[in-house]
Amino acid sequence: MIKNYLELNKCEEERFLQFINRNKIDKISFHDMDKKFKSEEFDFGNGVIVKVNEENIIGMASVVLKECSKKGIAYVIKLDINEGAEDKKSAICEIVEESKSTAKKYGAKKIFLGTKDETVIKTLNALNMERQYSAIRMALENRRVKYTPLNLIELSEQNNKEYLIIYNDAFKEVTNGATLTEDEVEEYTKNADEDNGYYIAIMNNDKIGFLQFNIKDGVGEFDLGLIKAARGKGYGKLILETAINFLNEKKAAEINLVVITKNIVALDMYKKRGFKEVELVSEWFQLD
To answer: What does the alpha-carbon distance between residue 18 and residue 89 come to, in Å, rounded to a whole number?
Structure first.
């Protein structure tokens, strides 16, 4: 049987939490799970697909629905199948079909699924679906800053609307680029600390882009973007050096980023700067 997260009964919720935590060292609580899956990203639970039987959770997938009305695109993430499932292929197919059906109800014209699970990939290939692009993690070797860093303005309650506009303009046409919401920016503002930061980048008094970073266990990872009007002027290299300089000052042991291979301009810039691929994050398939 297939249900969405909101349709699970109490016993099924408990089993689902156990399923989510089964391979985790740092277990999450029911509150954390509920907050995550009842977010706007998944239309407050409707986009979380769960395959259940009388005793077990067979598998699940999360369908990012918030881009459907804005861009006509849905993303299926975290397709996860119980290792003990008897017929994994059938379970994957059923979850994929339900994910597609859900996405189309929300107006998705294109549906992409990201995974690096070999069983899922083989099943998709058997259904004549081939990889369209990948998400990869890259690490920087030469951390010596090459250009003068840009000025940065820290995210605050006073400028969070500007940050929202800049972020969404920068990611509007980017593959897998998510639309930021007012609620998410408010969360950024509340949760910013020494290891999680959000900034507006300034060039000649003009606000040209954003930079955000997190540091965990000494590894610094960043994301950045330029507004459309600021592209083609060489600012990409400057904001990249700004990110590197920032994490150098934070004394991060490593500097990483995640990039979509279809974003050829960004990928080429990172390669020329000396970033090397260190990990495959996910392979992406078009389902429709």
So the answer is: 22
In this structure, are residues 225 and 231 in contact, taking their beta carbons and an 8 Å threshold? no
Cα(165)–Cα(96) distance, integer angstroms: 34
Q: Taking the model in full, what pTM does it have? A: 0.93
Looking only at the bridges linking them, the beta strands covering 275-286 and 254-260 are unpaired
Q: What is the DSSP code (8-state) at residue 147?
A: S
Phi, psi of 177 (to 5 degrees): -75, 125
Beta 110-115 vs 73-81: how paired, if at all? parallel
User: What domains does the chain contain, in order, with CATH numbers?
Assistant: 2-129 (3.40.630.30), 139-282 (3.40.630.30)
Contact 49, 98 (CB under 8 A): yes
Tokens 């590894």 — which residue?
219
| Span of 35-39, 42-46, 52-56, 281-285 with lowest mean pLDDT | 52-56
Does position 165 have pLDDT exceeding 80, yes or no?
yes
SS3 of residue 119 by DSSP: helix
Work out the burial of residue 233: count CB atoms within 10 Å of its CB; fewer than 13 is exposed, 13-18 middle, 19 or more buried. exposed
The pLDDT of residue 106 is: 97
User: Are 254 and 218 a contacting pair, CB within 8 Å?
Assistant: yes
What are the backbone dihedrals phi and psi of residue 178, each rounded to the nearest 5 degrees, phi first? -95, 145
Q: CA-CA distance, 225 to 208, in Å (whole number)?
A: 9
